[in-house]
Design goal:
The protein is α/β, with parallel strands linked by helices. Helix content is about 45%, strand content about 10%.
Length: about 220
């Protein structure tokens, strides 16, 4: 059976609650670099290219190896495919560095920081571009592992339904939302991120969606 892109009415309010929670609602402004975090979502590379062309940063780093959810789509690695896509969209080759070893958000931060240092590039601020529902995890991870960086979180500014349609599988998106919500709680306990406040309505939405079976991305 083909995946559906329609959010079930019974879950819509809870999905919207999690979707809004993970959006950091940061104001985009010019920074030293744009960092595109690898994932299954090619829209990250698209939006990174758009921000570059708007003059928001002079250099891009794409970071990402592969994960079980991306190896089929990006067999040569997330960062490599992101770079190729950005070049197709008109970003000059020389403006892009790639970090090809990171397999999680913490490594995205640590290995990108190392790469920039190796190239003698001093960075005080960055726009951190990710999937919409990854923003809060990116923010809390960067604050833990790269605390001096002035980081702004950003994603393609798409409405929820349009984003789901672009991914092509509503169950995948809901599972990812639930998984990322759990990580906001669990990763600080493991020293991976700083703690984040979670409102009671977000906790309740997370619990209900988990009870409904959206557990595919839980740790």
């Amino acid at each position: 059976m083909s995946p559906t892109t329609e959010i079930p009415a019974a879950f819509r309010t809870d999905v919207e609650t999690l979707w809004d929670y993970h959006d950091m609602h940061h104001t985009i402004r010019p920074t030293d670099v744009g960092i595109g975090l690898g994932s299954h979502d090619l829209g990250v590379a698209t939006f990174t290219a758009e921000l570059f062309q708007q003059g928001m940063f002079p250099r891009i780093v794409f970071s990402g190896a592969n994960a079980p959810t991306t190896v089929e789509r990006f067999p040569r690695g997330e960062a490599v495919h992101y770079r190729e896509h950005a070049i197709e969209l008109g970003v000059p080759t020389e403006a892009i560095l790639i970090e090809t070893q990171a397999t999680n958000t913490g490594q995205n931060a640590e290995l990108t920081r190392k790469l920039l240092a190796e190239h003698g590039i001093n960075v005080n601020s960055a726009i951190l571009i990710s999937r919409p529902y990854q923003q809060r995890r990116v923010y809390s991870t960067a604050k833990k592992l790269w605390p001096e960086l002035k980081g702004i979180c950003a994603s393609q500014p798409l409405p929820l339904d349009e984003y789901v349609a672009g991914i092509g599988d509503v169950n995948r998106v809901i599972n990812m939302l639930v998984g990322d919500t759990q990580r906001i709680v669990e990763y600080p306990k493991r020293g991976f991120a700083i703690p984040q406040h979670m409102p009671s309505e977000v906790e309740a939405a997370f619990r209900r969606l988990g009870e409904a079976g959206f557990t595919g991305r839980l740790i």
